[in-house]
Design brief:
mainly alpha; 29% helix; elongated
Length: 58
């Protein structure tokens, strides 16, 4: 099995789906459209926990 992914920057889920429709995929291929979250999309308490991860480096 061979897999891959593309990351596209779009304004909406609908725009992402339009791009996915243009993909040169076969009739039985599956294309998933997933949102990639930015740090600012996460709740504030999660952002604070992640800030502490830099202390774990080294």
């Amino acid at each position: 099995m061979l897999g891959g992914y593309w990351v596209i920057d779009v304004r909406s889920r609908e725009e992402a789906i339009e791009w996915a429709r243009r993909c040169p995929a076969g009739e039985n291929d599956v294309i998933e459209v997933r949102r990639v979250l930015e740090m600012s999309d996460l709740p504030e308490h999660v952002q604070k926990v992640v800030e502490g991860f830099s202390e774990l480096k080294d």
